């Protein structure tokens, strides 16, 4: 972060065609980035892998909510879900067939909070596809409602095709 207008202008100049995140970070000392930014430069497979890695790391950092960690691991264990770009909102784990915003919300699973079942949703909360007593069993109905034509995730996103 910077409040210096000269820094802002230098960032604009540095953000030229072909400038990598690593090069910009080396030149612009105030610039922060995360592994996802650099992964996007390597392509959609790298972005998906980096996002899964970040979510799995996040899951280990919330021991008070083991249902979330169980859900991340169960979804990651399934090859069809693992090739999609995962994202979360209010602890719900959703899968997108593209790596950029707006995400294509394909399917989502919400972990229980304070007991109850895992809920499989047509994201963004436009209907319930099923419930399951644990994360591993929640993956099956998610896969059943995920069209076979979905995936692997593609770079960027321009909205849902017509």
Provide a concise account of the structure shown.
The protein is of the alpha+beta class and 162 residues long.
Describe the structure.
Helix 3 packs antiparallel against helix 4 and helix 5 (66-77) crosses helix 7. It contains 7 helices and 5 strands; from the N terminus they run ααααααβββββα. The protein has helices at 5-14, 21-27, 35-42, 44-60, 66-77, 79-82, 135-144, and strands spanning 85-89, 92-96, 105-110, 118-121, 128-132. The chain has a 5-stranded antiparallel sheet with strand order 1-2-3-4-5. The chain starts with a helix and ends in an 18-residue tail after the last helix. It is of the alpha+beta class and 162 residues long. Helix content is 42%, strand content 15%. The radius of gyration is 18 Å and the shape is elongated.
Which helices and strands appear, and what pairs or packs with what?
Blueprint: H1 5-14, H2 21-27, H3 35-42, H4 44-60, H5 66-77, H6 79-82, E1 85-89, E2 92-96, E3 105-110, E4 118-121, E5 128-132, H7 135-144
Antiparallel strand pairs: 1-2, 2-3, 3-4, 4-5
Largest sheet: 5 strands, antiparallel
What portion of residues belong to β-strands?
A: 15-25%
The proportion of residues forming helix, as a percent range, comes to 40-55%
Task: Give the end-to-end Cα distance, rounded to a whole number of Å.
Answer: 39 Å
Whole-number average pLDDT?
86
Cα gyration radius (Å) = 18 Å
**Order of strands in the sheet with the most strands?**
1-2-3-4-5
Contiguous helical run count: 7
Number of strands: 5
Low-confidence stretches: none
What is the SS-derived class?
alpha+beta
Order of helix and strand elements from N to C terminus: HHHHHHEEEEEH
The rough form would be described as elongated
